[in-house]
Design a protein that fits this description.
The complex is a heterodimer of chains A (about 120) and B (about 110).
Chain A lengths: L2 E3 L4 E5 L4 E3 L2 E3 L4 E8 L5 E7 L5 E3 L5 E5 L4 E6 L8 E9 L8 E2 L3 E6 L1
Parallel strand pairs in A: 2-12
Antiparallel strand pairs in A: 1-4, 3-9, 5-6, 5-10, 7-8, 8-9, 10-11, 10-12
Chain B lengths: L3 E4 L2 E4 L5 E7 L5 E8 L3 E10 L2 E4 L6 E3 L9 E3 L8 E8 L9 E2 L3 E5 L1
Parallel strand pairs in B: 2-11
Antiparallel strand pairs in B: 1-3, 3-8, 4-5, 4-9, 5-6, 7-8, 9-10, 9-11
Classes of the chains: A mainly beta (about 120), B mainly beta (about 110).
Chain lengths: ~120, ~110
């Protein structure tokens, strides 16, 4: 069975500083990994995904994520945070080796960018 | 939220009543999903459909029902059997059942049971 963990409920970062939102996963096959962002009272928006290939994936709004197979991690990063990045971020995983498995979402990390 | 609409945005229901949440997409996506979001619990899958006239239970299907008579529509009914229905409900769709396709989400419906 697959699982995903976001160890931090909340992350605070000063505007202009680099940010990292952590995600670790567990799957039996090859992982398909996703990051989504949710603004208040809105649906989720897709940011980026890792399927195969280059371990560094670039996505929307200047975000990127690094796939690390040995550490089973897929941390979300941005070099310089903006106040508008404040939102709820979800990591999700799917087992690429099993079509019957569904996508699993983490519990979310609330990101606060301090002006 | 482009391409997927959910209505209504806010819904109030009395205990013991069934209520149906609407989800429509114009993205020509084959797969559609219903999630429930509660504070601190992330998203939990209620039902999903990979093709018209077919759907499967997710992790928390009890007290809910769905239909998929048209590709564009995937309505969710919250029945009186659902013991704690107050939550934020999200509908999503994806291009197909392929594992690497990302999901597109609607704006959500907030259901409150009075």
């Amino acid at each position: 069975a697959q699982s995903v963990a976001q160890p931090e409920d909340q992350v605070n970062v000063a505007e202009g500083n680099p940010l990292t939102v952590k995600c670790t996963y567990s799957v039996s096959g090859n992982p398909y990994l996703f990051w989504y962002v949710q603004y208040p009272n809105r649906g989720l928006q897709f940011l980026l995904k890792y399927i195969t290939g280059d371990n560094l994936v670039k996505g929307s709004y200047g975000f990127e994520a690094e796939f690390n197979k040995s550490q089973t991690s897929f941390h979300l990063k941005k070099p310089s945070a903006l106040v508008s990045d404040s939102a709820l971020y979800f990591c999700a995983v799917r087992d690429g080796g099993n079509r019957d498995d569904k996508i699993i979402f983490g519990k979310g990390t609330r990101l606060h960018i301090l002006p | 939220d482009g391409g997927i609409t959910q209505s209504p945005k806010y819904l109030f229901r009395k205990e013991g009543q069934n209520v149906t949440l609407s989800c429509e997409q114009n993205l020509n996506h084959d797969a559609m999903y219903w999630y429930r979001q509660d504070p601190g619990q992330g998203l939990r899958l209620i039902y999903y459909s990979q093709i018209v006239n077919d759907f499967q239970k997710g992790d928390i299907a009890e007290g809910y029902s769905v239909s998929r008579e048209k590709k564009e529509s995937f309505p969710l009914t919250v029945t009186s059997a659902q013991k704690n229905p107050t939550a934020f409900y999200l509908c999503a769709s994806s291009m197909g059942p392929l594992e690497h396709n990302e999901q597109f989400f609607g704006p959500g419906t907030r259901l409150t049971v009075l």
